[in-house]
């Protein structure tokens, strides 16, 4: 007898595991006949449904479980042929490194598009670039909020194409180096976007064009030498005397007084209004020296903020100690809309009109105060739960008086100069 060798059986690769063709029957209310429809399921998303052109005639029946037309072998073979065509389409996309979506596969299957050999236009290139970043978002390397912005920026650029080129699908090879100046002007003049938001959209477009160049959809990136720099922002912060006037103003409305307390707390702690509603007793700590501080991740950046509490901030926490023990929340935060409306009333009572009172103004007030009192940018950044570059650009700047005092102190220490 020959010795039999046990060979482990390998499971065959399921070529349709990531792209499946699903058939369903739609019964007409008028004729009561069934029509076979199909849609593609891929990457957790289903495409729109399309008709296959197959009807269930008399003497035939639709088997939902096996997806076969009982009584007509030719129709069953046609459905099987559609499945094999989907399999071939999917692997053609994979081989060429193209982004695959359920709707794309269905359009190719129904011959509405021939994207296998076609070079994508600008709008399609942006869509494929966005899909290429999805894995980073799933892996946690890209913030979900940042990823969601890609779709909005793509729609803005699509609107720009309609305005500038009178068409939505602009071929990549038709783009000229003047594109950078055109879209910059459109975003600033037509859309009234800020310098920061305009720069973000333009940099996104530049990165997407680099992705198209790497995929050989075009032979150049027309924005390769374009730069979008954001200048120093005029940071509006409340002075110590103005903050004191806001603290001492007499208020009869208890809800307005509550908003005043929250605003003053933000001026000393640099918390945003949204972060106030997330503060809990578990975020409050005390050092061995008796210094109270809050350790809490910012909702916007998820970066930990180490906030040392000033005496005025501690007084506000003690004022709402009963509320904290009852609810577990440190402060009774209100909705953004109500709180912003009451800030206007607070500014009117305090006689403050230099600029509108906002929760960001309170955050900038704290950052500016710490920086002018000698704290380093690293310390201010840790207090705000942000980066040093963001603090320097958007949150704090040294006042003229601070610069004069620092330089004067240097000259006085070195009188020989």
What structural keywords apply?
417 residues; alpha+beta; four-stranded antiparallel sheet; 50% helix; elongated
List low-confidence stretches. Answer: 1-16
C-alpha Rg (nearest Å): 31 Å
Strand content: 5-15%
Number of DSSP strands? 9
Name the helicity range.
40-55%
Straight-line distance between termini: 105 Å
Task: Give your account of this protein's structure.
The protein is an alpha+beta fold and 417 residues long. It has helices spanning 73-96, 102-109, 122-132, 134-139, 144-165, 179-190, 195-214, 240-248, 254-269, 273-276, 311-319, 321-327, 336-350, 359-372, 377-384, 388-395, 400-413; strands at 19-27, 34-42, 45-46, 50-56, 61-63, 68-70, 284-286, 292-297, 304-308. The strands form three sheets. Strands 1, 2, 3 and 4 form a four-stranded antiparallel β-sheet that branches. It has a three-stranded antiparallel β-sheet with strand order 7-8-9. The N and C termini lie far apart (105 Å). Mean pLDDT is 83; it is low at 1-16.
